[in-house]
Amino acid sequence: MSSVRQVQVTFDCAEPERVARFWCEVLGYVAPPPPEGFATWDDFNSSLPPENRGAWFACMDPSGVGPRLYFQRVPEGKVVKNRVHLDVRVGTGLVGEERLATLEAECARLVALGAVRVRVLLADEDNESCILMQDVEGNEFCLD
Predict the structure, then answer these.
(1) In the chain, at which end, N or C, are there fewer CB atoms within 10 A of the end residue's CB?
(2) Cα gap 138→144, rounded to integer Å
(3) Whole-angstrom Cα distance, residue 22 to residue 36?
(4) Can you give 38-60 as a three-state secondary structure string?
(5) Cβ pair 140, 81 in contact under 8 A
(6) pLDDT tens across 78-105, in order?
(7) Which residues is 30 bridged to in the sheet?
């Protein structure tokens, strides 16, 4: 049995570059260099037929540890809740008020980038507190 060496997470969206750049800011990721032979992504996109311009964008962990995120344009909008979502782990190891304060501070930063705060789920017997959010196109994620 072969082992998985890498994982890429793919998002369907209307504006791939906008969503990718949002997630770069959230995660500290970077856009990859443009394809070989092109000085910029704008140069690459202008070389494509009009219907393919801006059809996809990606971002990657500059340390190479986290998965690559790929964003592809699709014609339909988001209709229902995501079946898979990202947990942005900013409160790992923290509990109680210290955890909530850390989550709230990160929530404020992300709202300023265009995210939407949905609701806080307070700690219970099994789980610590987290904040449910949406990215710039309505994809759900958690601050955990």
Answers:
(1) N
(2) 18
(3) 25
(4) CCCHHHHHHCCCHHHCCCEEEEE
(5) yes
(6) 888 888 899 999 999 999 999 999 999 9
(7) 60
pLDDT (0 to 100) of residue 113: 97
Residue 12, φ and ψ in degrees, nearest 5: -85, 135
Q: Is the pLDDT of residue 77 over 90?
A: no
pLDDT digits (tens, 9 = 90+) for 102-115: 999 999 999 999 99
Percent of the chain with pLDDT over 90: 85
Query: How many residues does the structure list for the chain?
Result: 144
Distance from C-alpha of 109 to C-alpha of 101, rounded to nearest angstrom: 13
Which stretches of the chain are assigned E, i.e. beta strand?
A: 8-13, 56-59, 68-73, 86-88, 116-121, 130-134, 140-143
Q: Quick count: other Cβ atoms within 10 Å of Cβ 65?
A: 6
